[in-house]
Amino acid sequence: MELLLSLQDISYAYHNLKGETPALSHISFEVSQGEFLAIVGPSGCGKSTLLSIIAGLLAPEKGSLFYRGQYVSDCGLRDVMKVGYMLQRDHLFEWRTIYKNVLLGLELNHALTGENIDYVLKLLKDYDLYAFRDKKPSELSGGMRQRAALIRTMAIRPDLFLLDEPFSALDSQTRLNVSADIAQIIRGTNKTAILITHDLSEAVTLADRVLVLSKRPACVKCEMPIHFDTDRSDPLAVRNSAKYRLYFNQLWEVLTNEQTAVPTN
Amino acid sequence: MNRPLFRPTDAMSANQRRFLRAHRRHHHAVALARLLLITAFLGLWEIAARRGWIDPFFFSSPGGILSCLWQMIADGSFFAHTGITLAEIIASFLLVTVFSLLAAFLLWYIPNLAEVLEPYLVVLNSLPKSALAPLLIVWLGTGTDTIIVAGISVAVFGSVINLYTGFCQADPEMSKLIYTLGGSRLDAFFKVIFPSCIPLILSGMKVNVGLSLVGVIIGEFLAARRGLGYLIIYGSQVFRLNTMITAIIILCAIAMIFYRLIQNLEHYYKKRC
After folding, report:
1. Which pLDDT score, from 0 to 100, does residue B4 have?
2. Does residue B195 sit in the same domain as residue B90?
3. Domain for residue B62, yes or no?
4. Which one, A214, A224, A258, B86, has the greatest CB density within 10 A?
5. Residue A261 DSSP SS3
6. If you ran DSSP here, which 8-state letter would residue A216 be given?
7. Where do the domains of chain A lie, and which CATH numbers do they carry?
8. Domains in chain B, number
């Protein structure tokens, strides 16, 4: 697979008057075109900081990003590729209809062309939200809202999806279905995705590869490629397979060791 | 007040009908009690004045007020005084609204400016604004300008601080969403912060209209030859109690009408959203 993105030796610390809090320490990894990468780690370890750096919302203090082998300056990836970001909560605006909400990205990019609007309408039809396009977000279920948030992200046709625990606010059953749906949609379009989660089973079920981060300051603890023979679109079949247990147990062990380890500083 | 009263129908269950009847009974009882209270107050006042329990020269009477109001309408002075006061309130209210939105936006947009100006805003806001009125007369003379500026000065600083605080408290994650979609800080303001603060802006307008009224009346006390504030001061100087109280009642009506207008705007906004 073609190399899309590589991070080399990325470090970041937060500063305030009481001192500095290192969040990321010498993080290096690579992401291939079309890959679905999951990043897990203890809560508060700096996963979201890492995603913000990749998205260009924060500049790394040390280290560099490369896009297809080319150095990316501090302003981030958004100059060289389209990045779609999904946050923990859907943040659909209550003062807009679903249709106006999913057009937000195009509006901000001054890209409300007929072609793009047709694409959004097609997405709404494909993901069963077309009938709800004139509803308020509060009239939709949690799963539908998260699908609407995905369409809002997809509308700007990103090459890379950054998913910052986008399923964590959903109830567990909806979560299983919606996460499988969204992963399937992203795979179906051969887009690249980086998913941040603290849920191991979600990471194993959805990803092609899982990256485990240590506790803060986060560094890469281990990498595990995930491969299933069963159909990835059926989350239950994946979770019932023997391989799933194997992956899950191995990752569990790494994370448990990490959580009980003596702090280094 | 004008809430819809749902009538019990045959299609409803017996318990629902009973609930609706009880609800209507309660509603009517409250309305009746309000009416009785004001009638008793006015009746007692009128009787006390006629029987000489109180001196109508100092305490006026409902009948005296009514005839004064009637006379003011007949000679046109009602429209002249009420009109000028209304115009001053509307002008200062609109100017407060526009100015405080602009100022709060600038403070939000330039955080360093907000940090520098913060202590000054706090001082200006806690200053009793009536202390400024004599100063305004020296600077601007007596007239409508002074009165409008007095109306503005009472409401504007609190309004700026309120709006700025509201803008700063808008959900930062929502602004982050705008940035992740490629939007700028201005986009964050116009797509997220402003729309999410509309309820705050409307409730601030309710407060501002009352404060503008206070400022305008203070201004008229000191620097007017027309208007309801002038009528009150003039009435007190020549012991025309009927005129004074009539002017105060007209002021009550104006305050209530403005409050209701903005409340309707709020309802309209809520229904649309």
Report:
1. 57
2. yes
3. no
4. A214
5. coil
6. S
7. 3-81+159-260 (3.40.50.300)
8. 2
- The model carries a pTM of 0.83
CA distance A64 to B90: 59
Q: Which residues of A touch B178 (CB under 8 A)?
A: 108
- Is A38's pLDDT higher than 90? yes
- What is the mean pLDDT of the segment spanning B5-9? 72
Same domain, yes or no, for B95 and B229? Answer: yes
- Pick from A104, A156, A160 the residue to mutate for testing the B interface (most B CBs within 10 Å): A104
Asked if residue B154 and residue B36 are part of one domain, the reply reads no
Quick check: A108 and B174 CB within 8 A?
A: no
Helix, strand or coil, per DSSP, at residue A153: helix
Report how far residue A248's alpha carbon sits from residue A80's, in angstroms, rounded to the nearest whole number: 36
Helix (H, G, I), strand (E, B) or coil at B45: helix
pLDDT of residue A180: 85
User: What's the pLDDT at A244?
Assistant: 87
Q: Do A105 and B181 touch (CB under 8 A)?
A: yes
Q: Is B153 a residue whose pLDDT tops 60?
A: yes
B52 torsion bin: left (phi>0), alpha (psi -120 to 50), beta (else): left
Whether residues B127 and B19 share a domain: the answer is no
Q: Which domain CATH number covers B204?
A: 1.10.3720.10
> What is the average pLDDT across B10-24?
87
Tally the C-alpha atoms within 13 A of residue B160's C-alpha that lie toward its C-beta.
Answer: 26
Dist. CA B201–CA B265, nearest whole Å: 11
**Phi and psi at residue A58, to the nearest 5°:** -125, 150
Q: Say what the ipTM of the complex is.
A: 0.82
Asked whether residue B106 falls in the same domain as residue B137, the answer is yes
The residue segments making up the domain with residue B157 are: 69-272
Buried b / exposed e across A115-138, counting CB within 10 Å, b at 16+? Answer: ebeebbeebbeebebeebbeebbe
Q: To the nearest whole number, what is the mean pLDDT of chain A? A: 86
In sequence order, what DSSP letters do the residues of B143-165 get, joined into one string? SHHHHHHHHHHHHHHHHHHHHHH
